[in-house]
Amino acid sequence: MNKKYDVIIIGAGPAGYAAAIRCAQLGLKTACIDKSLDKEGKPVYGGTCLNWGCIPSKALLDASQKFVDARDHFAEVGISVGKVSVDVPKMISRKDDIVKGLTAGIAGLFKGNNVEALPGTGKLLADRVVEYVQHNGSTENLSADNIILAPGSQPIDIPPVPLADNVVVDSTGALEFESVPKRLGVIGAGVIGLELGSVWSRLGSSVVVLEALKDFLPMVDQRLSRDALKAFKKQGMDIRLGARVTASKATKKQVAVIYEDAEGEHQVKFDKLVVAVGRKPAINGILAADCGIVPDDRGFLSVDEFCATNIPNIYAVGDTVRGPMLAHKATEEGVMVADRIAGQKTMVNYDCIPSVVYTHPEIAWVGKTERELKKEGVKFNVGSFAFNANGRAMAANDTDGLVKVLADAESDRILGVHILGNQASELIAQAVIAMEFDASAEDLGLTMFAHPTLSEAVHEAALSVSGHAIHMLNRKRK
Ligand code: FAD
Ligand code: AMP
Question: What is the pTM of this model?
Answer without folding.
Answer: 0.97
